[in-house]
Predict the structure.
Amino acid sequence: MRIGEQIRTLEGTLMLDARTGAPAGADASLRGRESVRLVRGAVRIESGRIAALETDEGAPIDPRRIICPGFIDAHLHIPQFDSIGRDGLTLLDWLNDVIFPAERRWEDAAYARAMGARVAKRLLSHGTTGICAYGTVHHEGTRAAMGSLAAAGLRGCVGQVLMDQQGPDDLLRPAARLLDEAARMEGVGRIEPVVSPRFAVSCSMELMRGAAALARERDWPIQTHLAEMLPECELVERLHGMPYLDVYKHAGLLGPRTVLAHAIWLSEVDRRELEGWRCVVAHCPTANRFLSSGDFSGQRFRPLALGSDVAGGPDVSMVRVARAAREAWLASPQSQAAPAFGPGYWWWQINAGNAVALGWRDAGRIEVGAAADLVIIEPDVELNDPGAALGELMYGWDERWVGATIAAGVVAWARVA
Ligand code: GUN
Ligand code: ZN
């Protein structure tokens, strides 16, 4: 396959949704919840979409060529890709010492454009075709990066970061200017704007209320961070005079199109309240581990999404994020008492689950009408038992297995043989 080549048909082992449970003989943890299954088949692609789907349920699967929906990363920071691995700091110090200096570089829009192109390639090489991502506070820089991400074939949403307090002076802007700039954001290719107040530490109530109003007016989604670390929660309460969740409620930021990253330090009552608002929680297990933020215990929250949170999380691969989610679940006391969230569930989550959470009806599934965003996985291990294959794929995962990534029916990345 060559980059830029238009694909008309693909044949191999398809990874399909298995919402009602697993085939007979599969791991008990797969039964009775969302999952995926492997079946021999073929897809036909027309105008960037899946036009036809054939399956041969009885045929043995070919483990050497698995066609999977492109992975969706529900929470990541494009300007932070060169900051992966700066460990030893907790959230607020890490933001000040590592992240703000990195984000400052997007003052130069040409730099942001080039970085956007570089990051797009890296995401595609890991099989990611969909993103819900942050830029920086720089309007032109964020627009330039959005252009590069769109040109590379990615879909999703990217937001100019809104912050007007508690940060370095040169990364803060008055609320009115930020809201004016955010309102001037436009979609490019398959990348749309998302209203992105950074978190309650770095936003005044005026800015957050304005952000909520803008999102309502334009029907744009919202993304922010919530309760990632205890000192952050304490600071929010000191700055705004009310508990974290109340700040966002007061600002009008909660609703079904709001993605809240982390949501670690919440009570069950808070979580039920968030479910009442139908907010999306983006669970970021690799970041929670890297920044020692705490243990997420909201795996049963709905709708849940999974995010890499690069560079809070060091892994670009959503399969590695899914594995970390599986491991975080196994380590939690709840996993003893409740039905397991097995590898098939977490694989479903980085495809259809994230699409559902983000409201993308035509993504994350191999089905007629869906966007032809696909990854061709070529494992170099034997997958003898179909019931165990998803665990073997997830734990044995090797980025070199990504043979090609297809975005809207076009080869966007291909491994050089
Ligand atoms: N909270 C506010 N900003 C950030 C960020 O850039 N990364 C993470 N992990 N948490 C944040
Ligand atoms: Zn984040």
About this structure: The first strand starts at residue 9 and ends at 17. Residues 77, 91, 95, 99, 198-199, 225, 228, 287, 309, 312 surround guanine (ligand 1) (CB under 6 Å). The domain at 9-70+362-414 is CATH 2.30.40.10 (Urease, subunit C; domain 1).
